[in-house]
Amino acid sequence: MNPLNQRLFVATAFVLFSLPLCAGWKLDDGKVHFFSVKDNIAAVPGTFAVTGGAKDGSFEVVVNLDTLDTALPPRDTNIKTALFEVASFPKMVLKGAFPADQLPKTVGTTAMVDFKAKLHYRGLSPEITFPMLLIRTDAKTVQAVTPRPVAVGMADLGLTGAPLEAMMKLCAHQSILPIAFVSFSGTWQAN
């Protein structure tokens, strides 16, 4: 290959392999999984659907609280109205740095990355750090999953006091542990 063609080949390869790192990203099929503990013995699992995107080194993930699914619709309604008060506070928003430079570069490779973000809800913005296992599945797709749940204090989100008491009264619980154990799964697609 002559030197000009060689330089064109290298420049083209660089551009093609760099596009997924520079492009914006869209979150598909995102889920927040959680469990909480009521009456000191019963775990309550559930999920929320999430949407989001990343661009210019930042990400935003929106947790739509109205999508709560604990596999028991009456319980979902109670949690949404008494605890989360979704009519007034319909979503949580997680914002942080998107470490595009740490994404796995080739198909089939993985990377373990600590994400640092602020979780915006009810006028509060606690900072949380969560580990994320990233798996490159094709040139424009990265699967993301937390390898273990992260403890999130309900007080950090304004969910203790009146909201928690209202939930306990409505459902006749003796107690609700003021911590939720949260994990995430989703697919990031390069635009």
UniProtKB/TrEMBL annotation:
Gene3D superfamilies: Lipid/polyisoprenoid-binding, YceI-like (2.40.128.110). Residues 25-139 form the Lipid/polyisoprenoid-binding YceI-like domain. This is YceI family protein. It comes from Acanthopleuribacter pedis. The lineage of its organism: Bacteria, Pseudomonadati, Acidobacteriota, Holophagae, Acanthopleuribacterales.
